[in-house]
From TrEMBL:
<feature type="domain" description="ABC transporter">
    <location>
        <begin position="6"/>
        <end position="226"/>
    </location>
</feature>
<dbReference type="GO" id="GO:0022857">
    <property type="term" value="F:transmembrane transporter activity"/>
</dbReference>
<dbReference type="InterPro" id="IPR015854">
    <property type="entry name" value="ABC_transpr_LolD-like"/>
</dbReference>
<dbReference type="Pfam" id="PF00005">
    <property type="entry name" value="ABC_tran"/>
</dbReference>
<keyword id="KW-0067">ATP-binding</keyword>
<comment type="function">
    <text>Part of the ABC transporter FtsEX involved in cellular division. Important for assembly or stability of the septal ring.</text>
</comment>
<comment type="similarity">
    <text>Belongs to the ABC transporter superfamily.</text>
</comment>
<keyword id="KW-0547">Nucleotide-binding</keyword>
<dbReference type="InterPro" id="IPR003593">
    <property type="entry name" value="AAA+_ATPase"/>
</dbReference>
<dbReference type="GO" id="GO:0005524">
    <property type="term" value="F:ATP binding"/>
</dbReference>
<dbReference type="GO" id="GO:0016887">
    <property type="term" value="F:ATP hydrolysis activity"/>
</dbReference>
<dbReference type="GO" id="GO:0005886">
    <property type="term" value="C:plasma membrane"/>
</dbReference>
<dbReference type="InterPro" id="IPR027417">
    <property type="entry name" value="P-loop_NTPase"/>
</dbReference>
<dbReference type="InterPro" id="IPR017871">
    <property type="entry name" value="ABC_transporter-like_CS"/>
</dbReference>
<protein>
    <recommendedName>
        <fullName>Cell division ATP-binding protein FtsE</fullName>
    </recommendedName>
</protein>
<dbReference type="InterPro" id="IPR003439">
    <property type="entry name" value="ABC_transporter-like_ATP-bd"/>
</dbReference>
Length: 227
C-alpha cells in the first residue's frame, strides 16, 4: 500500500475569523496527482495555504508529510516547507540575480554548504524541466512559461515529498500551460505526489486525474465527466 502523504479529517479552514471550507476530509497517497478546482474565492488558495502552514489549522485533524498541522509550531514551519515543493502563479523569482543564483539562494537558505553538491543539484533540476542552458539568464530575459519552469525546478531542489502547485498556469497562455503541465506530468510519473489548484478545465480534460472541487464551503471529489 502506498504511504499516506496528506490526511485531513473533518477540517474547517478559516481565513482570520471567516469560515472558508468546512468538513474537509481528504486522503492523498504517495504518487497521486490531485487537482483542486473551484471558482475564484471558493477556498482553493486558503486550502493550499493551510497545507504549507501559512494559515493555522484550528479545527479538525490534519497531517502532511509527517507533520501534524493542528500542533504545528511557528519554528517547525521552515522544516515542513523543506519537505514540500511550492509553486505559485506568479513565479516569485528574485529579479536581481540569474536563474542559477536564484536556485543557489534557496539551497543556501535551506542549509546546503558544499558548493559542488549545490552545482550538481542545480544542474539536475534545470535538466528535469528542460532549462539546462538557461542558468545564466535573468528572470526578465525569460518568457512566462520559462519562468514557471524555473519555479518548478526550484520546488524540486530539496527532493520534496509533495509538490503544492497553486494555479501554476494561471498567468500563462494555453500553449505554454500545456508545456508546463507536461513538466508536472513527468515529475509525477517519476513518483512525486502533486496537488494542483487550478481553474483551467482544458488542462483537466487533457490530463485527467483525481479532482476535488471547492464549492459552497465544501470540498468533494468530482467524477471527471461531471466537471
Amino acid at each position: 500500500m502506498p504511504e499516506t502523504i496528506l490526511k485531513l479529517q473533518d477540517v474547517a479552514i478559516f481565513q482570520n475569523q471567516n469560515l472558508i471550507l468546512n468538513n474537509v476530509t481528504l486522503e492523498v497517497k504517495k504518487g497521486e496527482f490531485v487537482y483542486v478546482i473551484g471558482k475564484t474565492g471558493s477556498g482553493k488558495s486558503s486550502f493550499m495555504k493551510t497545507l504549507y502552514g501559512d494559515l493555522p489549522l484550528k479545527q479538525g485533524e490534519g497531517t502532511i508529510v509527517g507533520y501534524n498541522l493542528k500542533t504545528l509550531k511557528e519554528k517547525d514551519i521552515p522544516y515542513l516547507r523543506r519537505k514540500l515543493g511550492i509553486v505559485f502563479q506568479d513565479f516569485k523569482l528574485l529579479s536581481d540575480r540569474n536563474v542559477h543564483n536564484n536556485l543557489r539562494f534557496v539551497l543556501k537558505a535551506t542549509g546546503w554548504k558544499d558548493p559542488s553538491k549545490m552545482e550538481t543539484k542545480i544542474e539536475e533540476v534545470l535538466d528535469k524541466v528542460g532549462m539546462k542552458t538557461k542558468g545564466f539568464k535573468f528572470p526578465h530575459e525569460l518568457s512566462g512559461g520559462e519562468q514557471q519552469r524555473i519555479a518548478i525546478a526550484r520546488s524540486l531542489l530539496n527532493d520534496p515529498e509533495l509538490i503544492l502547485a497553486d494555479e501554476p498556469t494561471g498567468n500563462l497562455d494555453p500553449q505554454t500551460s500545456v508545456e508546463v503541465m507536461k513538466v508536472l506530468q513527468e515529475i509525477n510519473e517519476s513518483g512525486r505526489t502533486i496537488i494542483m489548484a487550478t481553474h483551467d478545465y482544458a488542462l483537466i480534460l487533457k490530463y485527467p486525474h483525481k479532482t476535488i472541487k471547492c464549492d459552497g464551503g465544501k470540498m468533494f471529489e468530482v467524477i471527471q465527466k461531471a466537471v
